[in-house]
Design a protein that fits this description.
Blueprint: E1 5-8, H1 12-23, E2 31-34, H2 38-48, E3 51-53, H3 56-62, E4 65-68, H4 72-82, E5 91-94, H5 101-108, E6 113-118, E7 128-134, H6 140-151, E8 154-158, H7 165-173, H8 175-192, H9 197-217, H10 222-229, H11 235-245, H12 248-269
Parallel strand pairs: 1-2, 1-4, 2-3, 4-5, 5-6, 7-8
Antiparallel strand pairs: 6-7
Helix pairs in contact: 4-5, 7-12, 8-9
Bound molecules: NADPH dihydro-nicotinamide-adenine-dinucleotide phosphate (NDP) and (2S)-3,4-dihydro-2H-pyrrole-2-carboxylic acid.
(2S)-3,4-dihydro-2H-pyrrole-2-carboxylic acid (A1CAB) binds next to helix 7.
Function: Catalyzes the reduction of 1-pyrroline-5-carboxylate (PCA) to L-proline.
Catalytic activity: L-proline + NAD(+) = (S)-1-pyrroline-5-carboxylate + NADH + 2 H(+); L-proline + NADP(+) = (S)-1-pyrroline-5-carboxylate + NADPH + 2 H(+)
Subcellular location: Cytoplasm
């Protein structure tokens, strides 16, 4: 029988992960979730066939694996509340940005396996990518199981140094939002030029999907893929010159830096050493 998985705090990220799991064939009767809102419990139970609880303690008690999906600011209070129900044979996986392994272990209060992950919402379509790091109590078979879990909703990469989780957050956790914002701007402009919303959305999103597939599936360097489209004195060249004039490297570097700085700030704010 598959391990039972409890998602503590069912919202956007938990839904993205368990939707991907269900689509990959993970049995709904091995998945639990918690929420404080009765309507949401009813909805997820009806819509996805998973068991929803109001009490985190109950879900934790019944689970082999616990996925912590509340907001970083809520993590300490939520974990401490159910800590007396934690067993050493369980595996905990946190998805929270900026909450470090040592803090989670301290709040859980036992020598228990903890994996910190940074997934992203495309997991919901089986197209996620997740950065992972484990604490010293996590053995190789647990790490293998976690890799398989995240493989069922996309791909994953193990990170050696926890400090790099800030960069992972900026590069893949938050990144889908950057791309959505970019497409929003393209669609907005196409509409201003007279194209309808649906046509604009289809053309922009499929251009992005095709370009992403070329990066993933072809071996060519990314700058070569770009050059292949950029005819001298052609149309693309003019668009790219406009990006350079606005210093696109700086725009992106500023955005990633802001993301990393916030992640570091959260690691300090939501730390067990502050208790
Ligand atoms: N969204 C994203 O793209 C990504 C998010 N993350 C991380 O995922 C985590 C969740 O983010 P996200 O899903 O966007 O946030 P959401 O607010 O959508 O989900 C969090 C959920 O937690 C529930 N919750 C809050 N307190 C409790 C409690 N005491 N007991 C049980 N449930 C509770 C809330 O439901 P209710 O109020 O009904 O209880 C809420 O729906 C964060 O830590 C974030 O850093 C990581 C990578 C990507
Ligand atoms: O914005 C956030 O804090 C979360 C973490 C990565 C994506 N969303």
């Amino acid at each position: 029988m598959k391990p039972s998985i409890a998602f503590i705090g069912v919202g956007n990220m938990a839904r993205a992960i368990f939707s991907g799991l269900l689509a990959s064939g993970y049995p709904a009767d091995r998945i639990m979730g918690t929420s404080r809102t009765p309507e949401k419990r009813e909805y997820y139970q009806q819509q996805y066939g998973i068991s929803m609880y109001s009490e985190n303690e109950q879900a934790v008690s019944e689970a082999d694996v616990v996925v912590l999906c509340v907001k970083p600011a809520q993590m300490q209070a939520v974990v401490k509340e159910f800590a007396s129900f934690v067993r050493e044979d369980q595996l905990f996986i946190s998805v929270a940005a900026g909450v470090e392994l040592d803090s989670l272990a301290t709040w859980l209060g036992k020598s228990v396996a903890v994996v910190r992950s940074m997934p992203n919402t495309p997991s919901q379509l089986g197209a996620g990518v997740t950065g992972l790091i484990a604490n010293q109590y996590t053995d190789d078979s647990q790490k293998e199981w976690v890799s398989e879990l995240f493989a069922s909703i996309g791909s994953s990469v193990w990170i050696e140094d926890e400090a790099h989780m800030h960069t992972v957050t900026a590069l893949s956790g938050s990144a889908p939002a950057y791309f959505f914002r970019f497409v929003e701007a393209m669609v907005k402009n196409a509409k201003e030029q007279g194209l309808d919303e649906e046509t604009s959305r289809q053309l922009a999103s499929h251009a992005m999907l095709g370009a992403a597939r070329m990066i993933v599936e072809l071996e060519d360097p990314i700058d070569q893929l770009r050059k292949n489209i950029t005819s001298p004195k052609g149309t693309t060249e003019q668009a790219l010159l406009s990006f350079e004039a606005a210093d696109i490297d700086k725009i992106v570097a500023n955005a990633m830096h802001a993301c990393v700085e916030r992640s570091k700030e959260m690691a300090k704010t939501f730390s067990a050493t502050k208790d």
